[in-house]
Amino acid sequence: MNLFGKKKKKKGKNTTETTKNSIIQLRETLNMLEKRENYLEKKIETELQHAKKNATKNRRSAIMALKRKKNYEQQISKASNTRFSIEKQISMLEGASMNFEIMKSMKQGAKAMQNIQNEMSIEQVEDVMDEIQESFQIAEEISEAISQPFGDEFDEDELEEELNELEELGLDEQLTQISQDEIKLPNVPKTTLVNNNTQEEEEPEEESEDEELRKLAQSLEF
């Protein structure tokens, strides 16, 4: 039980409902006025026909019909003016209602923004950014630690020295192979010489082995 009486309705909701109801009632009034104008227009047509019919036969009755016609026309004019005022009022209410809803939405948005800002300050944002930066640094350090090779590292100077020795050994082997290929004695072709007098085959004298070795050594000198 509420000790302080009935609970008050929210003002915003009450205002919205009141505006909607007012617009509905005004539209109903417009509909009634339109029906009234249609009815009066029919009455005017009837009185006009009656005046035409009695213009020559019964002038007094014709004049009374014209008077009623004028009265109906005045009522239509008043109804039209009233309808115009109501239409204008409906338009203003609809615009005001729309502005009210917009203002209410913007007010709710501002309140929501304020609630968010109350839960989040500049200092909190800076703290979060510092934590993120620190997390990045830790992740980078972990990545570097994981990428480190296992086992003992080799001395690069020793490796370079061993490589140089292999290069020199390969060069010596190439020179040795070249020397062996050039030391092989070439085959001396046998030539048949014809003597004009005897026409007997004679073999040329072969160069001495010492002479060939001497020429080969001269070709190998750098």
From TrEMBL:
Residues 1-13 have a biased composition (Basic residues). InterPro entries: Snf7_fam. Keywords: Coiled coil, Endosome. Residues 199-211 have a biased composition (Acidic residues). GO terms for cellular component: cytoplasmic side of plasma membrane; ESCRT III complex; multivesicular body. Transmembrane segments: none annotated. Its main location: other. GO terms for biological process: late endosome to vacuole transport via multivesicular body sorting pathway; vesicle budding from membrane. Gene3D superfamilies: 6.10.250.1710, ESAT-6-like. Residues 122-176 form a coiled coil. Residues 189-198 have a biased composition (Polar residues). It holds the Pfam family Snf7. It comes from the Eukaryota. It is found in: Endosome. Residues 1-20, 180-222 are annotated as: Disordered. Belongs to the SNF7 family. This is Charged multivesicular body protein 4c. It comes from Anaeramoeba flamelloides.
